[in-house]
From TrEMBL:
Residues 5-133 form the Sugar 3,4-ketoisomerase QdtA cupin domain. InterPro entries: QdtA_cupin_dom, RmlC-like_jellyroll, RmlC_Cupin_sf. It holds the Pfam family FdtA. This is FdtA/QdtA family cupin domain-containing protein. CDD domains: cupin_QdtA-like. SUPFAM superfamilies: RmlC-like cupins. It comes from the Bacteria.
Amino acid sequence: MTVAEAKIIQLPKIEDERGNLSFLEEGNQLPFVVKRVYWIYDVPGGEYRGAHAYQKNQELIVALSGSFDVVLDDGANQQVFSLNRSYYGLYVPSGLWRYMDNFSTNALAFIASSTVFNQNDYIRDYDAFLAYKRRKV
């Protein structure tokens, strides 16, 4: 996979004077079946999250509150996606190195994943990631 295959997906936004509502559905906005969801919050200033790749897992990342950047790397190119609207999700295909940083105060990252947690799916060393990418070519 390459960073060019990652994309921002606009989620439905239903506006109402009482507040807005957005949602996501498998088969519509999501190109995968959701097996797990998790969220990241209370990230101290200057810290980052992630710094790994998945061999199989795909994700949709949404900034439910606040803002943060997602940096994607395919071993040859990097792209930064700034997330700051709860009706935009970033689709991250498998096989990309990623980390999240520049978290604003009270940022809340929601992540929908295509697999259940599996420690063996992670590549946590960047050099091992580059070797993995070379094998896949």
